[in-house]
Design brief:
heterodimer; A: mainly alpha; MetI-like fold; two-stranded antiparallel ribbon; B: D-Maltodextrin-Binding Protein, domain 2; D-Maltodextrin-Binding Protein, domain 2; 2 domains; globular; ThiB-like (chain B)
Chain lengths: ~550, ~375
């Protein structure tokens, strides 16, 4: 039974991840005369490769630490406090996730660059420094921590911590001994995802750091797409792969020991209005950090989209695109529709594949299943360039010649969405007390029925969080989709990139206007998801 | 087909079947039924044509054009090289003189002499009588300047490469990284065509290496893409003005000023930017019939169409390039606001192929380090 559950996720990863990656790497390491493992040593001996590896690793570690530092208080505030506009704000912090990096670069330069806020206030410029890269990574990944950790935190029974206090523990001790261990797996999952994301970061580094900073991902892009030096690209991919695998192994070992059954409660009952000066100050601090780091850059984009002769000029220009025709500019409604269609397809695939995998992985099992767990995370840590080019050379024969089919786009996006689904659902699924399932079985429920009646109600919240992620990942065109050839169904990010690729005020303004529409689409979609989720109160 | 391929293909069929059930249909569609009636054009992200013009092609020939955009110019060519033998489409458009040798040496194209080629000047036909590629358009990569900046300071804008290294223009120029950007590479090749190869062993000596050393001392700024250079660093663009950009000189195209007029808000009487005419490097773009094309006849018809008057006259306002056909007339926007570059810098594709990678490498250690 559980073996069958693994089948679809396993086939999905074999065909759309392992096979393409192996094919393109194989092309790089094999000549007509056979395998050439010696190339590994040749490439690794170059000093610049070590420099790139070192920079990639430390900036990812620093970005992860900084993101946790800034976002964990946020996760607490969203989980435990009630305040007006909370739902809307939770949607807003996810918006950065979907924005094209080139647009985010623009916004961040307005904050950190010449004539930006910091420059105006204190004459400080952070563009082309590593700080710009780190802060932009916080901007992108804030929602990962808030949603992954906050989702579980809201379901933790606060009475356990209160009981510890009653028994004489200090506030800190109670938190350290009761809450932190319970949150551990979710924090580790969030940290893992942020690390893998920043480890394979490309656009942000290139745009904000300038040519002086290079990540492995940027280097793999250069070697593959620009220089067609497949051997070097293959070695770099293997290095990136090895590092990601090592991190996954460490994560698996540390988390395994901490996962325990938890007492999960209805999140609606755990949040309250802030009490006392301390809590109000915490809320204020979190809101201020969100305003500064997330809302301000987004605001810059909105302001620029409105900076036309006659206010809404750029939006009107978008509408007239319909009249002018041409395959270049896309009517905004069509781009919205394309984006939503791809996003729904990608979400459906990711939730199906990821949900099945999570269900199969729920119970602690043998080494093989554990290995599969880590395998599912790998697409986050392996170069999107390699995957995209792998599609190109591997999926070239029927029945797999999907290269010019629309389905390849949501498939590639789902590859990035699945790890989110698994990582969001697994901590909650594993927290479900196994005795509940056993009780159901004793009472005569079939395994399927037990899952439906016991697990599903408890993970419904996690499922919606996961679906939200998969949706946002698709809207933001994550992963290999950038590197596969697209038939003409341009999505919002694609249309933005096209507009920014041309000179002229109207093009620039329309790019800003379309970015604003993208933000709105993302926020509204996530708000709707929240609504579905909270409509079902009293599910426990 | 090897056994592993068969096994994976089988597993894939299962997965695909299951996935297509879960994925909602809607966008796209299959073209199996009408395969021979569809001709697929693979190109770079900048490809654009009017719907009406593509429709005219369908009316004339019965073929519908499907466009696959495959990344930036160099990336698209490299993808075509990687998929040689099992191409993604029938016709490839977007090989330029920089990538021509790589494409031809890899045997990417089937020879075909397009109808209407006799109306294309000799200078554009870089593959001579072998007809593996068909010239479609040309454009010039040149330094653009912000007119207002120089007028405000009563400073004459630079005209030549030498000018750019003058103290009067210190810290004013932003260029794209030739490792990653095709205008950036074009600019580097332009300097190499103008100054020759000074050799890596004599940094600070002659040749383009010596020139770039002067540019570096004069404060040239390097960014990774045209988008960043033009929209964020260049003071003459809309984005640059909003970002308070302070570089009034940027590597862009000779056609950028007319495009600034076309997309001005409101449309200005005169272009806000100008072109330093002595810095222009010519790029010619080609199309070719991909080897192993599923629809060879359709591909040939499309190549005929690409050099035909209708498509040639449609290009300037879509891709901002010049037609190669003598039959095509330029739109008024170009004749009024554009400049004609009489003596652009050029370089033979063989010379580019022999030196490109090594030049980029020495450029990188000279300028970025």
């Amino acid at each position: 039974m559980r073996g069958a559950l693994v089948l679809l996720p396993a086939a999905f990863f074999a065909v759309f991840f392992a096979y393409p990656v192996a094919t393109i790497v194989g092309r790089g390491l094999r000549t007509d005369a056979g395998w050439r493992p010696g190339r590994l040593g040749e490439v690794l001996a170059r000093p610049e490769v070590l420099d790139v590896l070192w920079f990639t690793t430390w900036q990812a570690l620093a970005s992860t630490a900084l993101t946790l530092l800034v976002a964990l208080p946020g996760a607490y505030v969203f989980a435990r406090f009630d305040f007006p506009g909370k739902q809307a704000l939770r949607a807003v912090v996810t918006v950065p996730f979907v924005l094209p990096t080139v647009v985010v670069g623009t916004a961040f330069l307005a904050l950190l660059g010449r004539g930006g806020l910091l420059d105006g206030l204190w004459g400080v410029r952070l563009d082309t420094t590593v700080w710009a890269i780190l802060l932009a990574h916080v901007f992108f990944n804030y929602a990962v921590v808030v949603r992954t950790v906050g989702g579980l935190w809201a379901q933790l029974d606060p009475r356990q911590e209160e009981a510890a206090r009653v028994l004489g523990a200090s506030r800190l001790t109670a938190w350290r001994r009761v809450t932190l261990p319970a949150l551990g797996p979710a924090v580790a999952a969030a940290a893992l995802m942020v690390f893998l994301f920043t480890y394979t970061s490309f656009g942000v580094v290139v745009i904000l750091g300038g040519p002086a900073y290079r990540t492995l991902e940027a280097e793999i892009y250069r070697q593959t797409a620009q220089l067609l030096d497949l051997p070097t690209a293959a070695v770099l991919t293997l290095v990136q792969f090895a590092a990601a695998a090592a991190v996954l192994a460490v994560h698996a070992r540390t988390v395994r020991r901490r996962e325990t059954a938890l007492r999960l409660v209805d999140p609606a009952g755990t949040a309250h209005r802030p009490r006392g000066a301390g809590q109000w100050a915490l809320l204020g601090g979190v809101l201020a950090s969100i305003a500064l780091l997330l809302v301000l850059p987004l605001g810059v984009l909105v302001a620029r989209s409105l900076d036309a002769s006659g206010g809404l000029g750029f939006y009107r220009a978008l509408r007239s695109a319909e009249a002018s025709g041409g395959t270049f500019v896309v009517p905004p409604l069509e781009a919205v529709r394309n984006s939503l269609e791809f996003a729904f397809a990608a979400t459906a695939i990711a939730v199906t594949v990821g949900g099945l995998a999570a269900a199969a992985l729920t119970r602690r099992a043998g080494r093989l299943v554990r290995g599969f767990d880590a395998l599912l995370m790998l697409p986050l840590g392996v170069s999107a360039v390699t995957v995209g080019f792998g599609f190109l050379v591997a999926l070239d024969e029927p029945p797999l010649d999907l290269r010019s089919s629309w389905i390849l786009v949501p498939l590639a996006q789902a590859l990035v969405g699945v790890p989110f689904v698994v990582r969001t659902m697994l901590p909650v699924l594993r927290a479900v007390d196994v005795r509940l399932r056993e009780a159901a079985a004793v009472l005569g429920a079939s395994p399927l029925r037990a899952w439906r009646e016991v697990d599903l109600p408890m993970v419904r919240r996690a499922l919606f969080v996961a679906a939200g992620f998969a949706f946002a990942v698709s809207l933001g065109e994550f992963g290999a989709t950038v590197f596969i050839a697209r038939a003409d169904h341009p999505t919002l990010p694609v249309a933005v990139a096209r507009l920014l690729g041309r000179p002229g005020e109207l093009n620039y303004g329309q790019a800003m206007a379309l970015s604003t529409i993208l933000m709105a689409v993302c926020a509204v979609a996530l708000l709707l998801l929240e609504r579905v989720r909270t409509d079902r109160k009293g599910e426990f | 087909m090897s056994t592993t391929k068969k096994i994976t293909a089988g597993a894939a069929a299962v997965a695909v079947g299951a996935l297509t059930l879960t994925a909602c249909g809607g966008s796209g569609g299959t073209d199996d039924g009408a395969r021979s009636k569809t001709v697929t054009l693979v190109s770079h992200d900048s490809f654009a044509a009017s719907d009406a013009v593509l429709k005219a092609f369908t009316e004339e020939t019965g073929y519908t054009v499907k466009v696959l955009k495959s990344g930036d110019a160099v990336e698209a060519v490299n993808k075509a090289v990687l998929t040689k033998g099992a191409p993604q489409g029938d016709v490839f458009f977007g090989v330029d003189n920089t990538t021509l040798s790589r494409a031809l040496d890899n045997g990417l194209f089937e020879p075909y002499a397009a109808k209407g080629l006799d109306r294309v000047g000799e200078a554009f036909r870089l593959d001579g009588d072998r007809h593996r590629v068909t010239p479609v358009d040309y454009g010039d990569i040149c330094v653009n300047y912000d007119k207002k900046y120089f007028a405000d300071r009563k400073l004459a804008p630079p005209r030549t490469f030498d000018d750019l290294a003058e103290p009067a223009y210190k810290d004013l120029l932003v260029v794209e990284n030739p490792e990653r950007s095709s205008p950036g590479l074009g600019f580097l090749l332009g300097t190499a065509a103008a100054y020759g190869d000074g050799g890596a062993s004599r940094p600070g000596g002659g040749g383009w290496q010596g020139y770039w050393k002067k540019l570096k001392d004069n404060g040239v700024k390097v960014v990774d893409s045209w988008e960043i250079a033009y929209n964020q660093e260049f003071s003459g663009s809309a984005g640059g003005r909003k970002a308070k950009a302070d570089r009034p000189l940027v590597v862009s195209y000779a056609s950028s000023p007319p495009v600034e007029v076309l997309y001005g808000d409101p449309r200005p009487a005169e272009a806000p930017t100008g072109v330093a005419e002595g810095t222009c490097y010519r790029q010619i773009e080609f199309a070719g019939l991909l080897e192993g094309a599923a629809n060879e006849e359709g591909g040939k018809a499309l190549l005929d169409f690409l050099v035909g008057k209708r498509f040639q006259e449609d290009m300037p306002l879509n891709m901002f390039v010049h037609p190669v056909s003598e039959d095509a007339r330029l739109p008024e926007l170009f004749t009024r606001h554009g400049v004609v570059i009489d003596k652009p810098l050029t370089m033979a594709p063989e010379k580019i192929a022999a030196n490109r990678d090594q030049w980029i490498q020495s450029w990188s250690s000279l300028v970025l380090k």
